[in-house]
């Protein structure tokens, strides 16, 4: 339904050039805005059949094909490339509300508080594996369209490729023996299949739309994703700064971009490339709408994990203690200290000595 509203609102308001207010604004209807916000699909179809012949939306438009219809009939006047497209800024602005929804999703909130299990996190990266492999990574679709003038500008396979990181993480959580089963698309969950279908549909409608999916995933992984990685390391993998495995990326490879030295610089470059993309106003609007859709698909992934978790239907991951002890052969055991422990021990000893010395001086000054 959200998709339907998104497409319908986008189509109708496109001719009025005010689509952004309609896309997902909860206040749009209250303010006498979008007439579709509270309508069921059947109601919208009824309304569509009542439009006059002269209306830009004709009777025989199939609701779910609305973007296709627009691509064929877009008005000539908006065909010029924008001189200052600001595509990244438009996507950031356009996805603000849905970004907040993603942050406030039950599963993401639990993730942020560090209370998810490895079974849940394992499901998450298993889902992402399919999204990156078939959708936006090696990725079959982005690579196929890498010569598209918009994709080309922000195509960074060397820096961003996640497929092998995801395989490493899956091996970490489930063991090598289960990789074939976990990465078989036949075993993908409904939300994953819907996401991959969304990516394929976008590529068919207009390959430039893939940039919206690329933006939401990669900039998300380099932004909020990095916060989530820290929570994961500390609360789920239970690593401590004083242990030898603190600097290990095992189990966290997905969030580790080894070819990006400075995340902020890279994100700025990525945004700058998007801001210079050769787009018309029409394509820009479609891309922003697609970015919103991409967030919705991600939220659906989170919801699915929560539902599977609530009904105990998640695959079981390996015992983390066993995995971590393999990961960290020099982890302190039976009184043997790691490098971190030596530093803490030395610092504590030195502080105690300094305190003792200062007390001794004060006492001796009195006498
Ligand atoms: C717990 C969940 C999340 C948190 C805490 C979070 C947090 C953040 C933060 C702090 C930023 C700003 C970083 C900066 O300015 O450099 C950001 C940016 C971003 N996030 Fe999220 N985020 C979350 C979920 C998501 C999800 C689910 C997606 C989409 C898949 C996403 C996509 C993005 C994108 C695309 C940006 C870049 C915005 C821009 O600068 O254009 N985030 N996030």
TrEMBL record:
Enzyme Commission numbers on file: 1.14.14.18
Residues annotated as transmembrane: 342-360
Reactions this protein catalyses: heme b + 3 reduced [NADPH--hemoprotein reductase] + 3 O2 = biliverdin IXalpha + CO + Fe(2+) + 3 oxidized [NADPH--hemoprotein reductase] + 3 H2O + H(+)
Record carries keyword Membrane: yes
Top enzyme class: oxidoreductase
UniProt KW keywords: Heme, Iron, Membrane, Metal-binding, Oxidoreductase, Transmembrane, Transmembrane helix
PANTHER family given in the database record: HEME OXYGENASE
Family as reported in the entry's similarity comment: Belongs to the heme oxygenase family.
Protein name: heme oxygenase (biliverdin-producing)
Gene source species: Parasitella parasitica
Protein's gene: PARPA_10744.1 scaffold 41684
